Amino acid sequence: MNIAEHQGWVSVPMTLPPEIDRLAREVVALGNGERRAPRMAEIKSEYGPLTARAVGERAKSMLKEQGS
């Protein structure tokens, strides 16, 4: 449960910038974790840790969507 839901606030879906979505698709296309890790490290050094985290979270959600 996120903090907004816990506090009873209305949760508004956040739209990700297209760049994060593009990078996440690129990471997912790499296949297994061994091939993804170096690219994630490059993203972190190039764009910063917050962007890398957002890309990682988006990639995870894409993988979940593919699995279902």
Automatic annotation (TrEMBL):
Source organism: Salinisphaera hydrothermalis (strain C41B8)
Domain of life: Bacteria
Protein name: Uncharacterized protein
